[in-house]
Structures are given as C-alpha cells and as structure tokens.
Amino acid sequence: MHDPRAADxxxxxxxxxxxxxxxxxxxxxxxxxxxxxxxxxxxxxxxAWLAAGHAADMGWMRHGVDVRLDPRRREATARTALVLAxxxxxxxxxxxxxxxxxxxxxxxxxxxxxxxxxxxxxxxxALRTAGVTCWGGVDTAPVLERSWAAEAGLGFTGKSSVQxxxxxxxxxxxxxxxxxxxxxxxxxxxxxCGTCRRCLDACxxxxxxxxxxxxxxxxxxxxxxxxAGLPPLALRPGFGRWVFGCDVCQEVCPHNxxxxxxxxxxxxxxxxxxxxxxxVASPDDALLARFTGTPLRRPGAAGLKRNALLAxxxxxxxxxxxAARLGLSHPSPVVRGAAVWALARxxxxxxxATDPDSLVQAEILxxxxxxxxxATPLGPR
Length: 381
Ligand code: SF4
Ligand code: SF4
Hints:
Blueprint: H1 9-14, H2 16-26, E1 31-36, H3 43-51, H4 65-69, E2 80-87, E3 100-103, H5 112-129, E4 134-137, H6 145-152, E5 156-157, E6 163-164, E7 172-179, H7 198-202, E8 208-210, E9 213-214, H8 220-226, E10 242-244, H9 248-251, E11 273-275, H10 276-281, H11 284-290, H12 300-315, H13 321-327, H14 333-345, H15 358-368
Parallel strand pairs: 3-10
Antiparallel strand pairs: 1-2, 2-7, 3-11, 4-7, 5-6, 8-9
Helix pairs in contact: 12-13, 12-14, 13-14, 14-15
Bound molecules: iron/sulfur cluster (SF4) (2 copies).
One iron/sulfur cluster binds next to helix 8 and helix 9.
C-alpha cells in the first residue's frame, strides 16, 4: 500500500508544488506554503533590530547572521522554502485562584519545538531518500522563520510581530525546510491589522517600539524564559502573574477570537498554571524533573524560582511571605534577589536583611530606599 509519508521522486520532479505540500500534510503539519529562495525577505529590518540592541542578551540571534540573511550561504542549491506550521492553541483552564502563576500557551504540554522538530526531521529524511537536498529547522537552525512564512503567505505579520492566519489563529509553531527543487511559490498575504493596535496597547511592559518592532529587553517572555538575571525594577510590576512567558499580545488579537484547538494527544495541555509556593519550595532537581519534556525546563530551576518570586511579589497576598522567605536561602543570588524584592513588595523584608552578593545587596538597597512600591493585590484572571 502507498505510504503518503514516503516521497516519490517522479512526483517531486513532475509536480513539485503538489508533492511538497502533500508530504507536509502527511507528516503532520497543519499548514504549508512555498516561497522562492533568495536573500531572506525583510533581512534589513532584522539587521536594524539587532543593531538597535533589541535582541537583548539573546546572543544566539547574532550567530549565523549571514545564513539567516541568505540561506544559500549554507546550501547553494536551495531553490524553494517549504514553510510549515503546527497550531497549538488551547483554551485556558479556569483560574484556580490562590497563589498561582500563568504559563504561556506554547509551554502547557510537550515541548512543541521537539515535537515539530521531529516531524520536520522525518519529512527531511523522506525527501533526502527521494534524492532531494534539504536543510532547515524549528527554532534551532539560523533561519528567520517568520520572514519566510510572511513571504510564503503562511499568515501575515501582525503588529505584534507574530504570524497570523486571518480570522483563524496566531498560535502556531513555524518551521522551514529549504529544498533544491523549483516549485511555484505562494504569494504574501495583505496586512489584516488595519487600524487595530490592541496588542501594542495591551502589552503590560510597553515592549513594542512600534508596530512589528519588539524590544526583547522589555518583554516578559524574554525575561522569564531566556534571561539569566533580574529584570529592571520598573518592569517587574508589569509581569503580574506571568511565571513563564506571556500571551497578552496574542490573547487580545481579534484574529484569535475563535482559534481552534487541535485535537492531538501530543499537544494536550498539562501545565497552564503553576503553584508559586510549590515552585519556590521544591528542591531544584525535583522541580526540573517535574517538567521533563516541556519548555518549562529552559530557564532552569533558579530561573523558574525567580519568576515565581516576582509573581508572588506582584500578587500582593501576604500568605506568600513564607515562600518568599524560603527564597532568601537559595544558592543563586538571582533567586535571593527576587526573594528580597517579593518581600519588599509584601512589606515583609526583615530590617536586618544582609547578603554577601552585590546583586542581592542592590535589591536590599532598592527596598530600603523606597524604590519598591508595595503590591496592590491582583484579582483573578
Ligand atoms: S509577550 Fe507580553 S510582554 Fe512580550 S510583547 Fe507580548 S504582551 Fe508584551
Ligand atoms: S491585535 Fe490588532 S494590531 Fe495586533 S496583531 Fe492583532 S490585529 Fe494586528
């Protein structure tokens, strides 16, 4: 019987467009489009974004810039970009209340980058078996996935800098495979934002420099996932209850109003909310073991505890003082510093608080100088 996941060399030669798109569907991608390969579209905007320092400390964004700007520098025979997407939206379960923190949707279940990466690897393997030269990836290769998605019309780039399928969803993981086949490309979509600017106005930390331009150094997702240190004092109240990532700019987008939930066990949600006291109190290794196979491991145990302490400081619930005190004895100065800030927000920082580390000392000084406003209790979400 014919296996739809096997690539047929004759089919690829005779009907490359249909064959590539059919293979993408057979390998579990919800959407696929094609773009002709040349210099990466909007590469100049990416260079300007980097030059402005808006990548913050994400050094990996500066690696392989020449290939990001033109994939033919990695493989000269690349002719077509096969742009792929898997949807991952799920309705947020009801707020459990108490001292819980919010997790961004993409991290509720298995690590989508692994899941989608495996699908992409199997698709690449099928193509190679049929004699096609290809390379690419999901977030791991030096590829500007969003630029290629925009060029291929796999959504349009919203003012939130996210790819959006009009009136359907922006909750997607994107991947790209560059192949050495000529195939008829798709066309970019027109802009569907119009005069809307909900995402720009709703961002709790004012991270947008302008439409389609995000300063990662002000973004909650950057600080709670990628960054190793403590965010600037002024930004922290804006983090609210977000303990891993942030979905605000996508949640407010009208194109997501009726986003469908994919019916796939692999994408089932597990961790939409985290118990903040539990995150702080868990031994580091047990905390990481709990999140095996999910993106929640990325910031490490210290990063997760930092995030939970910042959320406790924002929640304004005096019951969080015990957990915040536990943070004061963590080996990481980042966790101790976050604990100092949380206690200051909860008006419970011991008068005699001291610490040998300069980072924590700076937090104590900020609290003593009155630069940490007391928390106003946050309501349910
Ligand atoms: S993810 Fe959150 S913090 Fe980052 S830009 Fe969007 S709304 Fe702002
Ligand atoms: S919220 Fe409005 S402006 Fe922002 S991406 Fe969606 S449609 Fe565009």
